[in-house]
Amino acid sequence: MRVLILSDIHANLVALESVLNATAGRYDVIWCLGDVVGYGPRPNECVAMMRERAALCAMGNHDWAVLGRSGIDVEDFNPHAREAVLWTRDVLTEENRAYLAQLADKPIHPEVADNLILTHASPREPVLEYILTPSIAMENFAEFPEQICLVGHTHKPAIYRWRLHEEVKVAGQPEETEQEQIATVELLRPQVGTLLKLETSPHQRLIINPGSVGQPRDNDVRAAFAILDLEAMTWLYERVPYPIELTQNQMRKANLPRRLIDRLSFGW
Ligand code: ZN
Predict the structure, then answer these.
(1) In what side-by-side order are the strands of the sheet with 158-169?
(2) What is the 115 CA–ligand 1 centroid distance (Å)?
(3) 165-223, pLDDT tens digit by residue?
(4) What is the pLDDT of residues 9-41, one digit of tens each?
(5) Ligand 1 centroid, distance to 165 Cα (angstroms)
(6) Beta-bridge partners for 108
(7) Is the per-residue pLDDT at 244 higher than 90?
(8) Alpha carbons 118 and 137: distance in angstroms, whole number
(9) Angle, nearest 10°, between helix axes 13-23 and 43-53?
(10) Centre of ligand 1 from the C-alpha of residue 162, in Å
(11) How many whole angstroms from 205 Cα to the centroid of ligand 1?
(12) Count of alpha carbons within 13 Å of 247, Cβ hemisphere only?
């Protein structure tokens, strides 16, 4: 089974459609890692698309904030993000709101892959925590037993590799030498278009982020996504250009904040 992995669409329908066009016929199901709405101008269309097409979808912090639930205070968002959340709340249809309301705010265990979980932010804090460093990743590897966890939230493509090493500890006398297990985490930056074999075992586990469809923050303005092949256990990370100015025009018409419009031109 080939899975199209989408994350952080953020109501950018033009970017989402470009990704779906570029991947037509190349996957069997879609899994979405959350933040379908927020920031962008087409929340209803993007939610409708995921309702129709995504087999699994995690709850993102923006999805949560739009619902106005306790646990995430929209006052904690920066002023521009907050403005977009409040605008989204106003325009979202009841049907789409109901869809967002039933998204999983705990890690999802797909039936088709028992060694893998997916969630929006982190296994420890599924809706909120940013995994941006190997040390935060290390703490999170202790929170799940599976070999792979897919996350979004940071809008930066990344692979954190956890490895258990056997190390020989020399304690002075040869007879006192003992084996010690040491865990390390390293951050790998996936290369666009390179098919990566996901080597996992009890000694090697991964936290993988496909980047963001609708608001990339790694200085690359193109929409980011990945295709995970569950049989071959490969990860193909890709980017596609999309007509950014179309999304920006839609945002201007909706009176969304200027800063949110501008950032799409730079990828931050
Ligand atoms: Zn996001």
Answers:
(1) 116-118, 148-150, 204-209, 158-169, 178-188
(2) 25
(3) 887 777 667 666 777 889 999 999 899 999 999 999 999 999 999 999 999 999 999 99
(4) 999 999 999 999 999 999 999 999 999 999 999
(5) 34
(6) 118
(7) yes
(8) 14
(9) 30
(10) 24
(11) 24
(12) 33
pLDDT for 4 beyond 80: yes
Radius of gyration of the chain (CA): 20
Contact 251, 208 (CB under 8 A): no
How many Å lie between the centroid of ligand 1 and the Cα of residue 233?
26
Please tell me the pTM assigned to this model: 0.94
CA–centroid distance, residue 232 to ligand 1 (Å): 29
Residues present in the chain in total: 268
**HEC states along the chain?**
CEEEEECCCCCCHHHHHHHHHHHCCCCCEEEECCCCCCCCCCHHHHHHHHHHHEEEEECCHHHHHHHCCCCCCHHHCCHHHHHHHHHHHHHCCHHHHHHHHCCECCCECCCCCCCEEECCCCCCCCCCCCCCCHHHHHHHHCCCCCCEEECCCCCCCEEEEEEEEEEEECCCCHHHCEEEEEEEEEEECCCCCCEEECCCECCEEEEEECCCCCCCCCCCCCEEEEEEECCCCEEEEEEECCCHHHHHHHHHHCCCCHHHHHHCCCCC
pLDDT value for 202 = 92
Q: How far is CA 233 from the centre of its chain?
A: 19
Predicted pLDDT of residue 187? 97
> Ligand 1 centroid to 122 CA: how many Å?
13
- What span, in angstroms and rounded, lies between the C-alpha atoms of 155 and 161? 18
47-72 pLDDT, tens digit per residue, is: 999 999 999 999 999 999 999 886 77
